[in-house]
Design goal:
Length: 257
């Protein structure tokens, strides 16, 4: 159920006493934040984990796919996180600390609404999962980065608030929040790593754009010998295969078998 807002109608968390606010931040350029959120926008709900190190946005689907966007504090011009207040609000919760033992607050937000609010001055964003229109794609809607975003959250029981400012125009958005649910922990670290690579995202994007859209499956293989990394698929119009050299295309490559 949506959380009921505790703030009065004429007050936002962005302009109240910082000591009484759990989390408050200001970003003078929304471009990096919007781009990161767009990259994980395949489900409408996103789980936010806020601590003194930044914000981790997590999207999960069918307990098999987990995508995360980590927004560090240096992305913001100001970043205030009340650890004492977080500790008081987290009493009795089992998910109140991250792996480093930092006090963490969790909340679930509607990702489509969050993107729409952030891009309020750039035309409508997509409200359908996996669809990008208007300012998300066209050159006329390119993010100029001129919008300043004030973000504030006062814990479970309050709305997640955005105050956007551009050229003297101010808009306040309030989003209903949802109770956090446990997310799937794909703990790859507990198993021996036999294959690992780092490839530039634009190259991988271009590779998938070249694949036959009628294909039902995609084959991805790694080998300690040539071809080191291969993407292949078979569709109605034939088969496609792309290979990558570890020296020219891969920033990092490890394959023991």
């Amino acid at each position: 159920m949506p959380i009921i807002n505790k703030f009065s109608a004429d007050t936002t968390a962005a302009n109240v006493d910082p000591a009484s606010v759990l989390f408050k931040a200001r970003a003078t350029n929304i471009r990096p934040l919007v781009n990161m959120l767009r990259s994980i926008f395949f489900r409408n709900r996103v789980s936010c984990a806020i601590n003194s190190g930044g914000i981790v946005f997590t999207v999960e689907e069918a307990s098999s796919t987990v995508a995360q966007a980590y927004v560090r504090t240096d992305l913001f011009a100001t970043f205030l996180y009340n650890v004492q207040l977080a500790h008081e609000q987290n009493r009795g919760r089992t998910d109140s600390q991250n792996e480093e033992g930092e006090e963490t607050v969790h909340v679930v937000l509607p990702l489509d609404v969050l993107l729409d609010c952030l891009m309020l001055f750039y035309g409508p964003a997509s409200t359908a999962v996996g669809v990008t229109t208007g300012a998300l794609t066209g050159s006329s809607g390119d993010l100029r980065g001129a919008t300043t975003a004030h973000i504030a959250f006062n814990g479970l029981g309050t709305d997640f608030e955005l105050m956007l400012e551009e050229r003297g125009i101010i808009s306040v958005c309030r989003m209903a929040t949802f109770e956090p649910e446990p997310t799937t922990d794909l703990d790859f670290a507990s198993s021996p790593v036999t294959q690992q690579l780092i490839i530039r995202s634009e190259w991988l994007r271009d590779a998938f754009n070249e694949l036959d859209p009628t294909s039902e499956t995609v084959g991805i293989s790694m080998s300690p010998s040539r071809p080191y990394f291969r993407i292949s698929t078979t569709g109605d119009t034939g088969s496609t295969e792309m290979t990558y050299s570890k020296d020219e295309h891969l920033d990092s490559f490890f394959c023991s078998e």
